[in-house]
Write a structure and sequence with these properties.
The complex is a heterodimer of chains A (556) and B (102).
Chain A lengths: L5 H22 L5 H10 L2 E3 L4 E5 L5 E2 L1 H14 L3 E4 L5 E3 L7 H9 L17 E2 L14 H11 L14 E4 L13 E7 L5 E7 L11 E8 L3 H15 L10 H8 L1 H15 L8 H10 L11 H11 L1 H10 E3 L5 E6 L10 E3 H14 L4 E3 L5 E7 L3 H10 L14 E2 L14 H10 L3 H7 L4 E4 L13 E8 L2 E8 L11 E2 L9 H15 L7 H8 L2 H14 L1
Parallel strand pairs in A: 6-7, 7-8, 16-17, 17-18
Antiparallel strand pairs in A: 1-2, 2-5, 3-14, 4-5, 4-13, 8-9, 9-10, 11-12, 12-15, 14-15, 18-19, 19-20
Helix pairs in contact in A: 1-2, 1-4, 3-12, 5-9, 6-8, 7-8, 10-11, 14-16, 16-18
Chain B lengths: L1 E7 L5 E4 L5 E2 L11 H16 L3 E12 L2 E4 L2 H8 L13 H5 L2
Antiparallel strand pairs in B: 1-2, 1-4, 2-3, 4-5
The chains are: A alpha+beta (556), B alpha+beta (102).
The structure holds iron/sulfur cluster.
Organism (chain B): Nitratireductor arenosus
Pfam families (chain B): DUF2849
Protein name (chain B): DUF2849 domain-containing protein
């Protein structure tokens, strides 16, 4: 994993000192709120309903045990004993005092973490496939490139005041687990016919008020051109992106209004001027960064097959968990483990300090000290010997982290919503909790099969509802909460934006409505292998509309 | 009917301006404005407290009286006054002495 060099260290320390001074001056009344607010936002500090909120970057979702322990320590010492992992692979603390934030940032800097560029109109934390470096279907680890982008974009003088925030995602596998087509820039790392590494480049995807699927503007960009090409894109956006209207300021609107062809032309022209300049990545630099992400020493552990076979016979719960939360690894003796932060009835993405400590200990003992945060708000141990799976599972059971629901209906993404968020129109967490309780039976969930349910408390769509197979959007109508259902969204390599199925549902009716949708699907699928999303794409919205509204529509 | 609310600068705690002339951590006991004159007075108090760096995000919110208790009209403000609805152990609701104080 990447280690700070002298430059990184002094840069982060300097920023901590600078922001600490700014906080001190604000508390002393020497600077006004109007002066301070943009400064605190650049350092990840928001003001929410109950308190300040601190968002800490987890670059491309990768962290080690020491860092996770530090997060647990922050939760315990400065917050209320828990943290919230987000769809941006970051973590948020909901209750820090402003006066404590300098101390928190200093603690984080001691483990090479910070909160820089987790807010504001800049290039945000670059996200990546949470199985990067482990996935069997991967061409190469995308994280070295995410790290190169992180270094290039950190306090980039030209790109610190963009028209709006800017999000980049990278995947190295054919199966897109990083939702790259709903990012401002999506990069798909692949090899050309000659075996050279490069990227398919997507631009202008996004969710929010105007959801759009990104357009592919390059089928193969050689790896050495990564920064020149990205610079060209962001430069064109910085010049022409709209600054007159916040709701039209993202690059997706520029792509839409300019047209993909014309915009690509502008980007290519800029790229032509840049490509042989100083941004060209020397091969030795890429390879040097790559060494930080070299796979751990995965020694052969062939005893895993027998161990797993026996343990499986011994415990049905373990067998269920194995089937749902364990993913094939590049190395046949190893596996990637998804640690569900979606225990039945709990707030999606929340973890207590004790759970964080437990995950850190497992990573250190069994996982080569590597942990990932997934954009689906779970944690991942990417490299666990199959021979150790049962031991890992037993420890997860002890801390309430062994829910075997990865990719099932209770593996819900939900934003903080009106329980915390100052921008929210409706609550998300209680809706997620109730749906999770309704579908608590694992047997029933497995019968339903893969189903991605995602909930946002307002149109900003932090809960990714647009790309949920079933999406739920909370709105405020006449002072009350109302929930709109969208169907058919997807955030993988076949991305699509869900369609609103009809009028919304009151809080006490939304779970029933979801159940109606699920039952309708079960009734019409060809066979159990036809997933919800595939069935929806085959039959369209009509049967679901009929089931949800038909009777009453006919009565009216 | 309106009351004045904000978040305290140094720790972000939600506070309401009370009849006791202080920014209180509980909504109960908030000073209620019922006409233009009292609304203007509250506004001025809010603006001054913001200028003095006591509080941020100052807002006048609509409330009604239910059984003699002040009840914000919007759910958002009811949640601010109590805490997250999914965690009774957090926020004001976890500190009954505070949330009931006049
Ligand atoms: S989607 Fe809306 S309510 Fe949810 S976290 Fe984002 S801004 Fe807040």
């Amino acid at each position: 994993m990447y280690r700070y060099d002298e430059f990184d260290r002094s840069f982060v320390n300097a920023r901590v000192a600078q922001f600490s001074d700014q906080v001190e001056r604000r508390l002393a009344g020497e600077i006004t709120e109007d002066q301070f607010k943009p400064l605190r936002l650049m350092n990840g500090v928001y003001l929410q309903l109950h308190a300040y909120m601190l968002r800490i970057a987890v670059p491309y979702g990768t962290l080690n045990g020491r860092q996770m322990r530090k997060l647990a320590h922050v939760a315990r010492t400065y917050d209320k004993g828990y943290g919230h992992f987000t769809t941006r692979q970051n973590i948020q603390f909901n209750w820090p005092a402003l006066s404590d934030i300098p101390a928190i940032l200093e603690e984080l800097a001691s483990v090479e973490m910070h909160a820089i560029q987790t807010s504001g109109n800049c290039i945000r934390n670059v996200t990546a496939d949470h199985f990067a470096g482990a996935a069997a279907d991967e061409v190469a680890d995308p994280r070295p490139y995410a790290e190169i982008l992180r270094q290039w974009s950190s306090v980039h003088p030209e790109f610190s005041y963009l028209p709006r925030k800017f999000k980049i995602a990278v995947t190295g596998a054919g199966r897109d687990r990083a939702a790259i087509q709903v990012h401002d820039i999506g990069l798909h790392l692949k090899k050309d016919a000659d075996g050279r590494l490069g990227f398919a480049v997507y631009v202008g995807g996004g969710q929010g008020r105007t959801p759009m699927i990104a357009k592919k503007i390059r089928d193969f960009l050689p790896e050495e051109d990564l920064l020149s090409y990205t610079t060209a894109i962001v430069r064109v956006y910085n010049l022409h992106g709209r600054r007159d209207n916040k709701f039209k300021a993202r690059i997706k609107i520029l792509v839409h209004e300019t047209g993909t062809e014309e915009l690509t032309k502008q980007i290519e022209a800029e790229f032509a001027a840049l490509r042989d300049g100083e941004l060209k990545l020397p091969d030795k630099d890429i390879r040097a960064i790559e060494t930080y992400f070299a796979p751990p020493p995965l020694t052969p552990r062939p005893e895993g097959d027998d161990a797993v076979r026996l343990a499986r016979l011994d415990s049905k719960d373990f067998a269920d968990w194995l089937g749902q939360n364990v993913t094939t690894h590049k190395h046949a003796d190893y596996a990637a483990v998804t640690i569900s932060l979606k225990a039945i009835g709990e707030a999606p993405g929340d973890a207590t300090d004790q759970q964080m400590e437990a995950v850190a200990a497992l990573a250190e003992q069994y996982g080569f000290d590597e942990i990932r945060v997934s954009h689906e708000q779970n944690l991942v141990l990417p490299h666990v010997a199959r021979a150790d799976l049962k031991a890992v599972y037993d420890r997860l059971v002890e801390t309430g982290l062994a829910t075997a629901n990865s990719n099932l209906i209770s593996d819900i993404i939900a934003c903080p919503g009106l329980d915390y968020c100052a921008l929210a129109n409706a609550r998300s967490i209680p809706v997620a909790q109730e749906i999770s309780r309704r579908f608590a039976s694992l047997e029933r969930q497995r019968e339903i099969g893969e189903l991605k349910l995602k909930i946002s408390g307002c149109i900003n769509a932090c809960g990714h509802h647009h790309v949920g197979h079933i999406g739920i959007l909370g709105v405020e109508k006449k002072g009350s909460e109302l929930y709109q259902i969208t169907l058919g969204g997807s955030g993988d390599e076949t991305s699509s934006i869900g369609e609103i199925v009809g009028r919304g549902f009151a809080p006490d009716a939304i779970t029933d409505a979801v159940e109606t949708v699920v039952e309708t699907y079960l009734g019409l699928r060809n066979d159990p292998s036809e997933r919800f999303i595939d069935a929806y794409r085959r039959v369209g919205p009509a049967p679901f509309k009929e089931a949800l509204y038909g009777r009453e529509a006919r009565a009216a | 009917m309106k009351i004045l609310t904000a978040n305290r600068l140094h720790d972000g705690e939600a506070v309401w301006f009370g009849t006791n002339g202080h920014w209180n951590e509980a909504l109960a006991g908030a000073a209620i404005a019922v006409d233009d004159e009292t609304v203007t007075a509250l506004k001025r108090i809010g603006a001054e407290a913001f200028e003095n760096n006591q509080v941020v995000d100052v807002e006048l919110i609509d409330v009604e009286l239910a059984d003699g208790q002040i009840l914000p009209k919007r759910l958002r403000e009811r949640i601010r006054a109590a805490g997250p609805t999914n965690r009774n152990d957090l926020g004001k609701q976890a500190r009954p002495a505070i949330s009931r104080a006049a």
